[in-house]
Description:
- The structure holds two protein chains of two kinds.
- By secondary structure, chain A is an alpha+beta fold.
- Helix content of chain A is about 50%, strand content about 15%.
- Chain A starts with a helix and ends in a 13-residue tail after the last strand.
- Helices cover about 35% and strands about 5% of the residues of chain B.
- Chain B starts with a helix and ends in a 16-residue tail after the last helix.
- In chain B, about 10% of the residues are buried.
Amino acid sequence: MQGFDALSVLADPRRRAVYEHVAAAGGPVSRDQVAEALEIGRNLAAHHLDKLAGAGLLDVSFARLGGKSGPGAGRPSKLYERSAAEHAVSLPPRGYRVLAEVLADAVEEAGVEPALYAAARRQGERLAREGAPVEETLRGLGYEPYADGGVWRLRNCPFGGVARNHPGAVCGANLELLKAAFGGGVRIDPGPEGCCVVVDRGTCGTKTNGSLF
Amino acid sequence: MAGFYGELDRINAIADGWPGFVWRLVDDEGADATSLRPYGDDTMVNLSVWKGLESLRDFTFRSGHLDVLRRRREWFHPLGEAATVIWWVPEGHIPTVGEAGERLELLRREGPTARAFTFRDPFPAP
């Protein structure tokens, strides 16, 4: 399922809450875990999870929970996690991805990353002027931040496939943008998944978040 | 170039320990290949063998290497044509700089093919 068909299954607010819970978990979760977290029945959780999986929004795997194995460990649990497949709906139709890929090709071929980084810094400065708290800014841009000790880690890379094809240019621009937005405390520290940047939780580059930390 | 040289040992150590790393070109001193200048004094080469495209991709883009990759224009001029090429070799084969040069020429001449390609337009193992 793609586009409207895939996204239409999110119209039900409770199902959307199920989706958002699974996405925020950052790894596979079981029906029981979802039911418990959202305080709904196990069958209802399973119904919504399977609808989301059927639409391609969640991936399904099977594993035994609790580290048990061998005879007596019971049946493997059905687990759900967010699919990496991208869905976008835009009216009128827009295809920024193709344009972004072509622009990034040109930047890397011409070797004008410094100009790209300067433009990214100016974009970050615009965000800084809006003065929203760091977490809210990150969330609004689609980074899906979560606290990990002293830093915000970013579960999602909003630039996805373009960053995958042009990491030098795109991750570099991303770093400059966030540095300018938060005034420091931002660095590259890539893990296997998600955005390559981490943001210090003490970072206080915006104006209105004094009470947040 | 001090920034580049200052990071070299650290980044090479990350490569050497990365899952899927097989081999990389080094000069007589054995640490790196920066003294080899087969294409002229102002052109450095680096050449390495990996067990698969994904392990090379992970090292290049999802390790500490990314932080120096993004800074490459502080140290290197763009060549104005393809500067990096990838190709498949039989297991156990260690390529020469000459082979690498031929593959790069092939990529420049014909664009990405199964014999000479890029991360942007990859080809599966034969």
